[in-house]
Amino acid sequence: MEIYLIRHTTPLVEQGICYGQTDLDIAHNFQEEVEDIKVALQHFNPDKVYTSPLMRCTKLAHSLFPKNAHEKEERIKELNFGDWEMEKWNAIDRKQLDPWANDFYRSSPPNGESFWELEQRSLSFWDEMLSKHINGDKIAVVSHSGVLRVLLMKYLEIPHHKIFNLSLDCGAIVHVNLKDNNATIKVIKG
User: Fold this and answer.
1) Among the four residues 56, 98, 116, 166, which has the most C-beta atoms within 10 Å?
2) Alpha-carbon torsion 157, 163, 167, 172, what sign?
3) Mind listing the domains of the chain with CATH numbers?
């Protein structure tokens, strides 16, 4: 099975803002970013496209694969930052932010979710998706940094406290080739 994990393009938001599940539109340079991604995917025609339902992902999925079947999937949304959504990172109370930053895997922002919860829902989607596509299908997954990191943790056996050492810029592409329960991972665009 051949799978391309694709992170959304640059969202329309001021730098330094916490925006996990906020449904942001795309930045003005969207078409340029799409063209760069298309070059990297020029020989890839997926049998199925799964996308986060957030606008920054659905617009990219439709621009990249306008003729392919798309399925919106709630479980591959970004981390829910709860009360911190659309707040400036440097304005969040340090008494809340520091404990979360020291244990983001198990702790969560107020009214948000932990990275462990993101991992559980992402892997639930992943396992179900793999069970549906056992005939060597070609799959595109258009999602977010957090979801891509969860899947890379799984296949590269990276511990959660090290996964943010890996850079995954907007528009990043990771190729996952699965054969006989073995995965080969290749970062196409970072």
Assistant:
1) 56
2) positive
3) 2-189 (3.40.50.1240)
